[in-house]
Amino acid sequence: MAVPVTIDHRSTDYSLKRAYWLALASDLAYKDESVIDAQAREWGFPTVRHHETRFTPPFPLQDTQAYTMADDDMIVTAFRGTEPRQIKDWLTDATAPPRRGPADTGYVHDGFGEALQSIWPDVRNTHRELRTDGQSVWFTGHSLGGALAMLAGAWMYLEDPRLAADGVYTYGQPRTCDARLAKACNKGLKGRMYRFVNNNDVVAQLPPEPAYSHAESLRYIDSHGKVRDAMPLIGGLTDRAAGMLADPLAPATDGVRDHLMHAYLTALEKNLS
């Protein structure tokens, strides 16, 4: 396989090429609006909408940002992430109580729930306006953006299963919800939701279990950069140890390095070369 230079707007099947391209879309969410607009047009999306709002504690005052790009076949919403150190601080803060999940299904991390709800009405209205002819729908994001993409997919499905997204691809996503909501996603978004985790990515291991869970959608990138359908039951700890020892001068920083969007793009490119 070669690294894709064009975007397939019509297929909906899982592929590493689609995972790579949606990782690019997630990375683009960190850029300025003018850069997003230009790249979206280059990818063949004539319509671009930007979403931004502010939310308050339990997180520090923060912008929630996303963009939606659309054509006659495909609608993609990519949520912006945040710095690894900042999100780690948020996820280890146990003072914030959880909030009810979509359609009263389980519960979600309060900060993520508040962040999504601050922007969800605008995103949802944009999809209602642009989804006029059965276009496929995709949510994606890295880090905090991955948590918001996962919750957006869950909210859309549980509000109306007929409108379920065709794909939810996340990168370095933290645990976002409890086991009940994760189970609902496993059932309703099976074969549509994929959570990429790069070796020792520290954010993907937070907040701690059992209070918070991941949906069963793992695509694990091992210490050699190979994408696997799951973390191996035998050898998983060994592989993580190998990743930590890859840089003997700074093994403790491996979890942060593995979380960087650049690390995900590099690994996916390697699997496509």
UniProtKB/TrEMBL annotation:
InterPro entries: AB_hydrolase_fold, Fungal_lipase-type, OBL-like
Keyword Repeat: no
GO MF annotation terms: hydrolase activity
EC id: 3.1.1.-
CDD domains reported in the protein's UniProt record: Lipase_3 (cd00519)
Domain Fungal lipase-type: 76-209
Keywords for the protein's UniProt record, in alphabetical order: Hydrolase
Pfam families: Lipase_3
PANTHER family (alphabetical): ALPHA/BETA-HYDROLASES SUPERFAMILY PROTEIN, ALPHA_BETA-HYDROLASES SUPERFAMILY PROTEIN
Name of the molecule in the record: Lipase family protein
